[in-house]
Amino acid sequence: MTIALQKTPDSGEVAPVASATIVPLAPPRTSLFRTRIVPAAKEWAATLIPPIVTVAVLLVIWQLLCMNPGATLPSPTRIWTDAKDLIVDPFFVNGPQDIGLGWRILTSLQRVAVGFGLAAVVGVLLGALIGQSIWAMRGLDPIFQVLRTVPPLAWLPISLAAFRDSRPSAIFVIFITAIWPIIINTAVGIRNIPQDYRNVASVVRLNQLEFFWKIMIPSAAPYIFTGLRIGVGLSWLAIVAAEMLTGGVGIGFFIWDAWNSSRLSDIIIALVYIGVVGFVLDRMVAFIANIATRGAQAN
Q1: How many Å apart are CA 188 and CA 192, to the nearest integer?
Q2: What are the Cα distances from residue 1, in Å, to 4, 8, 16, 17, 22?
Q3: What are 85-138's pLDDT values in tens digits?
Q4: What is the pTM of this model?
Q5: Where are the domains of the chain?
Q6: How far are the Cα atoms of 52, 53, 125, 283 from residue 47, in angstroms, in the given order?
Q7: What is the CATH number of domain 84-298?
C-alpha cells in the first residue's frame, strides 16, 4: 500500500490519501495428473470394463452349463488344463508340425498379406476405371454381385486345378474373395465425386494421373476403405477355410487336424486366436482409414 498527499478543496489543507497497488495473482496450477492422466484413465476404464465384465459373466455361465454330466463341450477350466501350452507359449517349436499357434497365425497372415495386397491394388484400379463410366457400372455390377456371393471354398477346386499347388491356390482364393467389395465400393466412390471437383480439375488442366491422385483417390477414400475393411475380413475368413483342405502349418489346418484328433479344447483356443486376429486386422485398416481420410479432408 502507498500513501499520497491530496489537497482538500474546503480548507486547503493537505490530507494523506491511501492508495492500493494491485498485484496480479498467478493462475492456479493444475497438475498433469489431474488434467490428463485421470481423464485418460477414466476413458480407458469406460472402454475396457464393460467387455471384461461381459466376458467374465459368459465364462461363468459356460462353466455352469458344462457342469452337467451330459455336456459335450469342454468347460473353460478343462480347456485351460488341456491347452495350457497353447495359451501360455504360442511360439514354441517342438518339430515341423508341433509348433505354437503364434507361428501358425503368422504363416496364415503371410498368405493373407499377399492375397489381400493384390486384391487391394487390382480392386482399387479396376474400381477407379469402372467408376468413370456409367455404362461400365451398369454392365459389370450384376456380374460382380453374382461373383461376390460365391463362397471361398467353392473357388478352391478351380484354383487347385489351375495352379497345381496349395500355396498359390490359397492366395488365389483370398484374392478372388476379397476383390469384389473393393471394386464395388471404389467404383461407387468414384461415381459420387462432386461435379465441382471435376470442373476444378478441368480448369487447372490436370492430366489423368494428376486427376487420379489429387481428386479421385482423396474424394473416394471413405468408400475405398470401406471396401478394404470388408475385404480384409473376407481374406481372413477365406484363408482359414482354404487351409483346412490344402494343409500346411496354417491355423486352418491346425483346426482340421485337431478335429480329426478330437481335441476340442485346442479348437476352441484356435477360434479365440482367429477372432482376436480378425478384430486386430479390422482395427488396423480402420485406423489407417481414419488417418487417410483426415488427411484427404485437410487437403
Answers
A1: 6
A2: 10, 21, 13, 11, 9
A3: 888 888 888 877 778 899 999 999 999 999 999 999 999 999 988 988 888 888
A4: 0.78
A5: 84-298
A6: 9, 11, 38, 15
A7: 1.10.3720.10
